[in-house]
Amino acid sequence: MGVMFRGAIVAIVTPFRNGKVDEGALRELIEFQISNGTDGIVPCGTTGESPVLSHEEHDRVIEITVDAVKKRVPVIAGTGSNSTDEALRLTKHAHEVGADAVLMVNPYYNRPTQEGLYQHYRHIANNVPIPIIMYNIPSRTGVNMEPATMARLARECRNIVGVKEAAGSLQQMQDIMTACGPDFNVVSGDDFFTFPLLCLGGHGIISVVSNVAPADMAALVDAFAAGDMKKARELHYRLTPLVKSLFIETNPVPVKAALALMGRIQDEIRLPLAKLSDANYEKLKQAMKAYGLIK
Question: What residues contact residue 46 under an 8 Å CB cut-off, 6+ apart?
Fold first, then answer.
């Protein structure tokens, strides 16, 4: 299918109000993203708190996102699960309601072998024609998908088109690109690695920081694509302190607090995650003031 998904793509939060999905706030966040140059929207990822959404909420968030985006940018719906059958159901639903692709995290907790990972993705790819971007994040799942396994899937399944790579290794990112070839989308799952990955030949970022500073992350990727390395590097250095502050505790706790400080959502998170500690909340506020996001 070739390189289809690239640029600065936001892993959008799921806003809550009084314990329920705040549909109005979600639609407003989507407009904020698109008006600031974001290249794609990922609902129901890690940042969207997919593990604590009910199946009905998960489906509804994807439906709202598809409806609100109206094909202006790609919608890449999070449909991963540690149950292959559940991931298949979520993926079928995303396809049926008009998502452009899905983002599928490696099965977590089960700790499958490389063969298990291969069989999991292959089964879903063979049963739903939607483009699939794999999501490799060993710190969350307990298992690292090896470049050779990705290359095997890319060769055998035409609709497995890329990976959100978040193992924290530039060497692995390079090995994936070498193994899978130039038409395989390799995007970073870690905001800090956006610029380094672009230098290696990667295709962009599925970003947390884009929730609060979408224009700057989009500008970084656009500047690199235009050959303006100086501007891209400057934006990388400018964004780095903000990135650090947004990971001061477990994602998406800090980014939801940041969006609340900006007046865009309620600062509401679901257990087992808890709100930022008072000390870290103050550190986040100072970082946001220094960046110019709040006064």
Answer: 11, 78, 105, 137, 140, 251, 252
* Residues involved in catalysis: 135, 164
Joined together, the tokens standing for residue 135 give 């999501």
Residues in CB range of 49: below 8 A, 6 or more apart: 13, 14, 252, 269, 270, 273
Give the list of residues 6+ apart from residue 113 with CB closer than 8 angstroms, or none: none
In the chain, which residues have pLDDT < 70? Answer: 1-4
How high is the pLDDT of residue 5?
A: 82
CA nearest neighbour of 218 among 244, 198, 200, 201: 198
E strands of the chain, at which residues?
7-11, 16-17, 20-21, 40-42, 76-78, 101-105, 132-136, 160-165, 185-188, 204-207
Beta carbons within 10 angstroms of residue 65's beta carbon:
27
Please state the domain extents for the chain.
Answer: 7-228
Q: What is the pLDDT of residue 87?
A: 98
Q: How far apart are CA 160 and CA 106, in angstroms?
A: 13
Do residues 269 and 256 make contact, with C-beta atoms less than 8 angstroms apart? Answer: yes
The CATH classification number of 7-228 equals 3.20.20.70
